[in-house]
Amino acid sequence: MKFNAPRGTNDILPPDTLKWQYIEKKTHEIFSNYNYQEIRTPIFEYTELFQRGIGEVTDIVEKEMYTFADKGGRSITLRPEGTASVIRSFLENKIYGQAQPTKYYYIGPMFRYERPQSGRFRQFHQLGVEAIASNDPALDAEIISLGMRLLQDFGLDDLELHLNSVGCGECRPVYVEKLKKYLIKNKDQLCDNCQSRIDRNPLRVLDCKNESCQKVIKDAPKITDNLCDSCADHFDEVQEYLDILDLDYTINPLLVRGLDYYTNTAFEIKDNALGAQDTVFGGGRYNGLAEEIGNRDLPGIGFALGIERLLLSLEAKDIQLPVESGVDLYITVIGDKAKKESFKLLDKLRSKGFKTEIDYLGRGVGSQMKSADRMNAEYTIIIGEDELNNNSATIRNMKSGDEKEIQLSNLLEEMKKLVDKEEL
Ligand code: HAM
Question: What's the pTM value of the predicted model, to 2 decimals?
Fold first, then answer.
């Protein structure tokens, strides 16, 4: 073999593609119930959008972006996430001039140069939502419940919702200074990585899994005790709305997300069964992002869910999505004349919506039947010259083995009855 797919990427093959189609179909349905509309932005953007949007001192921007110069010498980056692009598009297309809030969703591939492991890839897929131009805490609850509803619909109803508020441009810098002072005091007990984070991005220390750092973190000042009145009220109201929806959550003051644009509400939905990469979806408010990339003071909130992680979570719980491969009818042919007549029948059946298949390898009846079996055909029919001459053939239910003699000219009507689940 000369070529492999690049490290950290996956081919998604049938029958797995059926699961992806199912997830995408459900996403379109559920998101549209909540009145979110689909937006499709380019897969690459000018690098500066992500530098400004996600933040210079984040793992994504520092280490993980697929960045290259195009033939015109511009710096281009494959999108590592969707939010910055959606806000860029919202501003560029002046959607703020229309009735608000704007509620968008997207499904598609994202790219991060990370060390691949279970649940972590270099090309992965997100489905996400962004609600722009409202700071209403009810919208925070709507966004969170929408994500939970989606998971519930796939059969996942025991995942943990972690909730935090990371404050705003007023109260967070004050908190960060307080945290910094505390971390400097306890510097000796922090791992090397965290020691270097104190100055650059002290909030990320709260995320460290190192045992000795954990001891320091346990007694660190908490953002939830340091919110300004307006942020504290907002956070209270978000919780009130979540309570109205009967959604369980754990307040986790250590929850800091890996992107710099967050303000106020931040959340993650975790599945313990997933190991190190246990976040199925995460998101929050980003009330300063539109200002950062387009000088407009517009609030926003959203989340993104990793489709690969969703599939891993389903697998860990042995949940099968209701997808079916297979065909309604396999036409087994004997001889050239029958093949040609059957080819016409095949076309007619397909045009009426029946999934129908025929042999293309000139195989004998036995091999064709095996092939029908492998294809999960629900019914087969054998057509040879005798059947054509007598306008009669036997249709067989592959599961039960039941058979029925039908008039060939009636095949379409018979299939209609059968697929409507009338027994043979
Ligand atoms: P994020 O937490 O970076 O947030 O990613 C969201 C989700 O994408 C993660 O919870 C995970 O399921 C999935 N994910 C991230 N990186 C990988 C990877 N390397 N391999 C597999 N799955 C991955 C964002 O991207 C924000 N844009 C979410 C958001 C939207 N916040 C507000 N609006």
Answer: 0.94
